[in-house]
Design a protein that fits this description.
The longest helix has 15 residues. By secondary structure, the chain is an alpha/beta fold. It contains three helices and six strands. The protein is 25% helix and 29% strand. Belongs to the NATD1 family.
């Protein structure tokens, strides 16, 4: 059964709860649970060197787009790169856009071409 964007409840988001990003290091992903546990937004990454991660893909279900969820995933991933003193390659177009809109020195100095 397909749901239209308007028909999908926001769950925790509509109740004003903060968006909580979870980091699964084993699966190499950051996630935000949406509408309880049924839906989720995800940012995937891979190690491409000993200290280099490729932030590869960000996906937010259509019904939840435009609500700033990807921004929370991007910030969490880039903060992880900073905290772990890694370098990052940005394959994901959204991450490239996020860094352009948030050109913080701690992010910029860790980017790989």
């Amino acid at each position: 059964m397909a749901h239209s964007a308007a028909a999908v409840p926001l769950g925790a988001l509509e109740q004003g709860c903060p968006i909580r990003v979870e980091h699964d290091r084993r699966r190499r992903q950051f996630t935000v649970r949406l509408n309880g546990c049924h839906d989720r937004a995800v940012l995937l990454y891979e190690y491409v060197g000993k200290r280099i991660v490729d932030l590869q893909h960000t996906e937010v279900p259509d019904a939840y787009r435009g609500r700033g969820i990807a921004k929370h995933l991007a910030k969490a991933a880039l903060d992880f790169v900073v905290e772990e003193d890694l370098k990052a390659h940005l394959t994901c177009w959204y991450l490239q856009k996020y860094v352009k809109e948030n050109p913080l020195p701690q992010y910029l100095e860790r980017l790989q071409p």
